[in-house]
Amino acid sequence: MTTTNEIAEKIASEQNLTKAQAKSIVETVFASITTAATSGAETSIPGFGKFKIKDTPEREARNPATGATIKVQAGLHGDRQSAYVAEDGVAVGGEFADDCHYRDPFGLIGPRPSRPR
């Protein structure tokens, strides 16, 4: 698991900043994403993902234990769409070669784990 502190430490060491400066930058980025999403805008960070708030209408669902029909209230929820792109940007037939790496803007992730097929 990567924390904001670990991201800030990585930025601080690579950009010759203090940890406090780097943590402030990381927190500002996340606050900006949150502010944009709550105002209805979508934030897109290439190679990382998209963030937005979705409005879901009221709907009917089924309780799997009893089979009874229930109403699910309308509401808002956060929607994040992760980017899953090979380092070289090549996907053949929707699949990536096993030796590809994630495109990782922070350099924190190693080889990608196998995907369920």
Structure notes:
The structure is a single chain. This protein has 2 domains: 4-82, IHF-like DNA-binding proteins (HU Protein, Chain A); 84-117, no CATH class. The longest helix is centred in the first third of the chain and has 20 residues, at 19-38. The chain is of the alpha+beta class and 117 residues long. The relative contact order is 0.13. A 3-stranded antiparallel sheet has the order 1-2-5, covered by helices on one side. Strands 3-4 form a two-stranded antiparallel ribbon. It is elongated and about 60 Å long. It has 2 helices and 5 strands.
Give the secondary structure arrangement, pairings included.
Elements (H helix, E strand, L loop, with lengths): L3 H12 L3 H20 L4 E3 L3 E8 L2 E4 L6 E4 L2 E8 L35
Antiparallel strand pairs: 1-2, 2-5, 3-4
